[in-house]
Amino acid sequence: MKEVESKSVKGDLKSFSIFDITHTLMMSRKTALVTIERGGKKGFLYFEKGQIVSAIDDTLAVGEQAAFKIFFWRGGLFAIDFDVAPRERNIRLDTENLLLEIARNLDENERDDLIEDDGSDASAVVEEQFEDRFKRELTKVFDQVASNKSPARDRYTIHAFDELLVALNDLGGSALFLRPGGRPRIKTGTGFTTIKQDQIAKGEIEGFLTALLAPTEARHYAENREVSVYYSTDRAGTFQVHAFHDSGRAACIISPASRSIPPLGHLAPEAPQLGSLLRGQRGLHLIAGPLASGKTALFTALLEDSLRRHDYLITLFARTQRYQFGDDSGFLIRAELNRFHLGGDGLLQGAIDKGSDVIAVDEIDEAVTLRDACVVASRAGLVLATIEAESAENLVDRLREFALQPGGERLLERLGACLESLTFVDLGRERGQPGRIGHQVLDAEDRTRIARGELTPLLGPVPA
Fold first, then answer.
1. Domain 264-459: which topology?
2. Helix or strand or coil: residue 31?
3. What CATH fold (topology level) applies to the domain 162-256?
4. pLDDT per position as a tens digit, 157-209
5. CA 372 – CA 403 distance, rounded (Å)
6. Where are the domains of the chain?
């Protein structure tokens, strides 16, 4: 195959058959449009996550009929385009069964009707050679599909291990263990179960972590060779991912995570007093703390408390949606963190237009996110957000760095105009230690100093 650009591949079917193309897209679970062209005729196959979902040819045949014709063409050129819009499904069979149906339709009459020739009479020898080659290719595809008993992993992406997480749930397991060079293993009540997939390839876990970790989490992992984060998937739920170095290589233990939200009073003695933060307030309220300090637990508990007590409409932007909120009061709208921005797809503007009582952001990790949070807090109402900081001094350093980044122009001035309170959290990172919360409400003088670039008012709320 000849690669034309990152999202398009072209080649000749003499060197790479339609069966090879199908097998490759199936195994890699790619979404793509495959165009087959031969003698002025064209056929189109649409793949979605490795499955053929739609087919059409230039005679306007569609569905399985079109797919049969296209698969029986011999020779010609192909193009694979990976930058395609979703296509309405017109094929009811999954691809494995579609290929089996093609094989079943290889009797003499159907082959005479469907196989395109060049206008010349094919000899019996040529036809026999064609039939043998065709069956060999089908057998190769079927053998490769049959040998892959569990779905192929979408390697090096955030969804690389989703199928294994489904298996973890199905087996009622307590943990999934992943190590390079070994097969996935699940700990159950009766021992370990080995998943009969391919071995975890070198670099596969690193690719997953690159897609999963936020910049601050990635820095923590690089410095400490260990990190624990949460990951949510619609198919399997929420999990805690513990990544660590094992003999110089990345390894992972992934465990089901509780989605229950702790009551405010269970977090720290000071926590219930913070319930007033979101009652009739405006401006920006920041919750800061080190990685795994419990700032997101406090953040989420405050949102749940506001839903229950004040019947609020809340729009939550978060990278991972790890908690299950109650649905008996108020209403919470979830959105991906990368869609928290003014303009573009309109989700943030839509949250404002819908009259959200609280717009929540977990977490602020770049200048443009903080800038837009300040703009919304100044103009539209209340914004509650988390931000990672090892200490108050580190928070000040991060804000100064943000101010120097693209999108950070006038950032400190905006922050001074809208920042109403700062809460610094350390909810007992060491087992058995009580949680601690420091809280500071800023006054007009504090905000004026911040707007001038004097960030000393932010050094106050660190718990003793």
1. Rossmann fold (3.40.50)
2. coil
3. Beta-Lactamase (3.30.450)
4. 888 888 888 888 878 788 999 999 888 999 987 788 888 777 888 788 988 89
5. 13
6. 2-147, 162-256, 264-459
